[in-house]
Amino acid sequence: MRVDIVSIFPEYFAPLDLSLIGKARANGTLQLGVHDLRSWTHDVHRTVDDTPYGGGPGMVMRPEPWGAALDALAPAESAAPRLLVPSPAGVPFTQALAYELAAEPHLLFACGRYEGIDQRVLDHAATRMPVTEVSLGDYVLFGGEVAVLVILEAVVRLLPGVLGNAGSLTEESHAHGLLEAPMYTKPATWRGLDVPEVLRSGDHGRIARWRRDAALERTGRRRPDMLAALDPRELDKRDVAA
Ligand code: ADE
Predict the structure, then answer these.
(1) What does the similarity note say (predicted)?
(2) Is the model's pTM score more than 0.95?
């Protein structure tokens, strides 16, 4: 997968050299380009923002540097990337969207700052490529950079070969519309607290049932919205009894 990121703070992306994302870059699974938006400015002050039309507080990112950046990174003669613009006004980022993005050959992230990017940049880009504004949640960050780090981490771990144990993907929270059951490791007793007996029983049927019940119970308590959204066909008879 190819990923390009445009930002006025390219230094934010230094952590992408680390850990499993760094390894995915080193082995070619992920080809990453981080670009400074100001390299597409032409004035001495390298200006990227201006006051909003219609008034109001804050500044808006001017369209010209963004237009030039997107022209350079998504040239008309090549296959169009998918443009992602982090914004608190975007569609919610979910595990389902992470899977969708992991299947794309080329993602292009545009990191806005201040009150956002002039809307015409996105409207013009949408004539040439799919554009998705994405929100991490119902809160406001300074800009899109941290959101890109989060989205990329969720996407890159789904790429083939990035996780040593692909089973981790099928067992984890959100894999089946439920939160994951609690997990334990050795020692069996720690500070007077025991690991649930069933997990030490070696009885794989009972363990699977316990984990399923714990996941249902935890999801119902913490995320009743997820439980309500669960397709009833995903439930078995014993889930209903629980
Ligand atoms: N930029 C500012 N706030 C954001 C949020 N909640 N999600 C994604 N991008 C953002």
Answers:
(1) Belongs to the RNA methyltransferase TrmD family.
(2) no
